[in-house]
Amino acid sequence: MPVDPDVFTVVLTRTPADNAMLGDALHGHFKETWGVDLRCIGFATSRVQTLADVDRGELNDQVTAADALAFTSRHGVRAALELLGAGRLLDAHMRGMLIACVGPRSAAELAAAGVTVDVVADPSTAQALGDALVARLSAGATVLVMCGDQARPELSATLLAGGISALQSVVYSNEDALEATRASASALVLTGPQLPSPQPATLAKL
């Protein structure tokens, strides 16, 4: 893999804690493999905010009608807590609604609010979350997916293939914030529940 002889710059697109762990691993790999120094820049791929125009009454009705509530990110959890409140989720859970998360971090956000999580995908992918829900629910059940305005189709497709109805509720927005950073970076590492784990050997110059 060709790299600049001086400093190789990589933009990491997770939370500060996640970036720190990945940055440490990449530093060692680049130094050992290519003998170059690495400069890591922590940068969010998007600016996320809960949608102000969500119809809370309609969202509440959707929760009432659903057999399960699925979260594909911590942003969805935070938006649900802001729009509905932990008490509403607790009430729905007590009435038999299944609560599922794509990974341990989104589950931890709910747990911190006192909400019990029934299903945590392993591995943390939309496919695994869909498979887990299909295994737990009866055919014809409805899953309400709390998602952003750039939601990927894998979870809904997996649910539908398993005979489960999937209803998406868009509760937060993503504003792209990458363009200004691409030109100055040597590489961009995109990671997330829907993306494969980054392997340093596969990084390419932009």
Structural class determined from secondary elements: alpha/beta
Radius of gyration: 19 Å
Mean pLDDT level: 80
- Enumerate the spans where pLDDT stays under 50 for 5 or more consecutive residues: 192-206
Which structural traits does this protein have?
three-stranded parallel sheet, elongated, disordered C terminus, 9 strands, alpha/beta, 206 residues, 24% strand
Plain-language structure description:
This protein is of the alpha/beta class and 206 residues long. Helices cover 39% and strands 24% of the residues. The chain has helices at residues 16-34, 56-65, 74-83, 86-94, 104-112, 126-136, 154-161, 179-182; strands spanning 7-12, 37-42, 46-50, 68-71, 98-101, 119-120, 142-148, 165-176, 187-189. Strands 3-8-7-4-5-6 form a 6-stranded mixed β-sheet, with helices on both faces. Strands 2-1-9 form a 3-stranded parallel β-sheet, covered by helices on one side. Strand 7 (142-148), helix 7 and strand 8 form a beta-alpha-beta unit. Helix 3 (74-83) runs parallel beside helix 5 (104-112) and helix 6 (126-136) packs parallel to helix 7 (154-161). The protein is elongated. The two termini are 12 Å apart. Mean pLDDT is 80; it is low at 192-206.
